[in-house]
Design goal:
The chain is mainly alpha-helical. It has one domain (about 1-235). It is built from 8 helices and 3 strands, in the order E-H-E-H-E-H-H-H-H-H-H. It has helices at about 25-50, 75-85, 105-125, 135, 140-150, 155-175, 180-200, 210-235, and strands spanning about 10-20, 60, 90-100. The mean pLDDT is about 85.
Length: about 250
Amino acid sequence: VAQFRNEKTGCVAGEKRIIEKDADAAAGAGEGIYWKLESWVKRMDAELNSAVGAVGELFAIRTELFEDVETDTILDDFMISLRIAQKGYRIAYTPNAYAEETASLNVGEELKRKIRIAAGGIQSLFRLKSLLNPFKYGWFSWQYFSHKVLRWTLSPVSCFLILPVNFIVVWQQSAWQNLQFYTVAFYLQILFYLLAAIGWYLENSKLHFKLLFVPYYFLFINYASIRGILRYIKGKQSAAWEKAKRAA
């Protein structure tokens, strides 16, 4: 409530925290790390200018700024908060106000959730395109572009293109010049994918090394993003919210 003393604050976002357990597999370990990073980014965004959106678990808005979203909206919490930003208000961030929940029950449940979020993200890009006008929204346009637009478009595609492109560069380097940097980068990528494969293999085993789940989860969420993009393009993503099964 204290954040609303600033008349330019139209929305206050709380923090989402994942209850982590020692026995967590990829879904739990990856989601926990993801939300720690996401929370840090939100804090930095808010300190610079404004947070970019709010999660549905915990946020507050000025009553007079509420605006109904379209009935086919996939990510209503994101759209509601960003529509407030469209009106020129900032989104504050209060990490001391937080909501906790357990991670998705398994990777299958997490996949359904991530696909839906990615499809909703693409939908929101079309409906919030005015936020990309830096002459009107200043720093917020850059924050929105770098934090959301790139994540939902360039990031998932480049994630799976960078390895074959790097391979071509290394293969052709003798015809160009000594490109040792690209050779090292190529082998580091191979190592990263190998660690991800090990994380995938250990997903259903009793051996849970959380650090191995990080590269696996990174590739997993980018794969889910591509699935989400395709689902939105095909018009197959329902706006109805389907609750993911959570770990006990």
